[in-house]
Automatic annotation (TrEMBL):
Region annotation (Disordered) ranges: 1-36
Protein name per the record: Aldehyde dehydrogenase family protein
Extent of Basic and acidic residues compositional bias: 1-10
Domain of life: Bacteria
Cited InterPro entries: Ald_DH/histidinol_DH, Ald_DH_C, Ald_DH_CS_CYS, Ald_DH_CS_GLU, Ald_DH_N, Aldehyde_DH_dom, LUC3-like
Protein's UniProt keywords contain rRNA-binding: no
Length: 467
């Protein structure tokens, strides 16, 4: 009797969704809108691949180094794809790709330490570190590649496999990155899935996932934590920020103005740890506003593909509407735009770089995360008032203090309630440092060895000491 025919029903093709170029507002491509059964199959394969991947740390190191080389080789294609869907200038896309490769190399060479505890008992306790299993990474649209790398580099180095979901606003560069990484990694060790909601929610609550590492907004972070509670998976949340820059009265405004401007406006202000509020001594307030406004009025805004562009568009229509709305609200509250203040009259999601003054401290542009090219500059009369205001929101990602006397600046920085405080610059991170927000800005620690251990669990073996 002939063997029964295997099920030959053709695989159903995923639906697709449009991807929009923010510089034109037009759809230019599409990506798969993956179904729940496809996600189940991906998680299942990630689980099977885990058993081989976890077994050989030396092979992991080699594969991750090769992955870094492959990312660099694909730099031109990745940069073009990233700029087209995200909007950032090409030079910034190249920088993001360089950081993606650097993260892979950093974690390729990092290994957990086995420790032995001998505390007088007749046993040794040996602490070893074990991977968790398939890890889900969910990332936003502002730095799709480098934020994904901040998750997959430590997770894979630790011996886990990964299912990575980019934002539906920026799926294409991540899909391309997935195929580039696949040339260096064993099959199914890292899989990119794309789709609109509820794909992220399903991934976060999937019973086959042992760690959900999420970067995005505070409300979605809460939803992810709730979803992951279903399987009691570990959760790491890197959430929003509303970083303050506190300027001291001994600053030289001309000297710091460029650095301060770019700390707020890089990536069109769409940076979790951008400067989102400036506090200037009342005596210097007008000079600071003028210096920032002059830069906002002259910076070249355009498509990221144009080599002259320094500031691209806002990434998507919803974010543009939000930026417009908080700016309108601030003006209704009494603020004045020293530069910008409105959408640019051209196709695409362009908003004029905006410096706001006379902003009431309770206006949402101060108390919430604007996440766009709009910066309120507020005067203060005493340092205590400035520190209280800097610490006075629900966020606590980063903050900075700007002054000529570095000891004095550091003493003020020490009073900021946040994960990272900078002096005379903002948002520079070392690969080797811990990265963690306080208050609503996050749960768990990423970066450096802490990021590696965040993807591991301790396993302790007790054995009698030798006689
Ligand atoms: P978002 O929270 O809207 O989306 C983030 C990701 O979650 C996307 O992939 C999205 O598709 C997915 N998602 C949406 N709903 C979901 C759900 N119910 N369950 C699971 N996943 C879901 O954030 P965004 O608008 O893409 O990004 C901007 C935000 O990200 C800002 O608040 C910014 O500060 C924050 N951010 C934080 C960091 C950090 O390291 N702390 C870094 C970059 C950006």
């Amino acid at each position: 009797m002939p063997a029964p025919e295997p099920d030959r029903a053709p695989a159903r093709r995923s639906a697709r969704f449009a991807v929009i170029d923010p510089a034109t507002g037009e759809a230019f491509d599409e990506a798969p809108d993956q179904r729940p059964d496809e996600l189940d199959a991906v998680v299942d394969r990630a689980h099977r691949a885990w058993h081989g991947w976890r077994a050989d740390p030396a092979a992991r190191t080699t594969a991750l180094r090769r992955a870094a080389d492959a990312v660099e080789r694909a730099g031109d294609d990745l940069a073009r794809s990233l700029t087209r869907e995200q909007g950032k200038p090409l030079a910034e896309s190249y920088a993001e790709i360089a950081r993606t490769a650097a993260r892979l190399r950093y974690f390729a060479d990092l290994a957990p330490r086995t420790r032995r505890i001998t505390d007088g008992r007749p046993v040794h306790s040996e602490i070893r570190w074990r991977p968790l299993g398939p890890v889900a990474a969910i990332v936003p649209w502002n730095f799709p590649l480098q934020l994904a790398a901040a998750k997959f580099a430590p997770a894979l180095a630790a011996g886990n496999t990964m299912v990575l979901k980019p934002s539906p606003y920026t799926p294409l560069a991540t899909r391309l990155l997935g195929s580039v990484l696949a040339t260096a990694l064993p099959k199914d060790v890292l899989t990119v899935v794309t789709g609109r909601e509820p794909l992220g929610a399903r991934l976060a609550s999937h019973p086959g996932i042992r760690h959900v590492t999420f970067t995005g907004s505070v409300p979605t972070g809460r939803a992810v934590a709730e979803a992951a509670a279903a399987s009691l998976a570990r959760v790491t949340l890197e959430l929003g920020g509303n970083d303050a820059a506190v300027l001291l009265d001994d600053i030289d405004v001309d000297r710091i103005a460029d650095r301060l401007f770019w700390a707020a406006f890089r990536n069109c202000g769409q940076v979790c740890m951008a400067v989102k509020r400036v506090y200037a001594p009342a005596r210097l307030h007008a000079e600071v506003v003028e210096a920032l406004a002059q830069r906002a009025k002259t910076v070249v805004v355009g498509a990221g593909t144009d080599p002259d562009t320094r500031l691209g568009p806002v990434n998507n229509a919803a974010q543009l509407a939000r930026v417009e709305q908080v700016t309108k609200q601030a003006r209704a509250d009494g603020a004045r735009a020293a530069a910008g203040g409105r959408r640019l009259d051209r196709p695409g999601y362009f908003f004029a770089p905006t410096i706001l003054t006379d902003v009431p401290p309770a206006s949402p542009v101060v108390t919430e995360e604007q996440f766009g090219p709009v910066l309120p500059v507020l005067p203060y009369r005493s340092l205590d008032e400035a520190v209280d205001a800097a610490n006075g929101t629900g966020f606590g990602l980063g903050g900075s203090v700007w002054g000529t006397d570095l000891d004095r600046a550091e003493a003020v920085a020490d009073r900021l309630e946040c994960g990272t405080a900078w002096i005379n610059h903002h948002a520079e991170l070392s690969l080797a440092q811990p990265f963690a927000g306080v208050k609503n800005s996050g749960v768990g620690v990423a970066g450096g060895p802490w990021g590696l251990y965040g993807n591991l669990r301790p396993f302790v073996v007790h054995r009698p000491r030798e006689a």
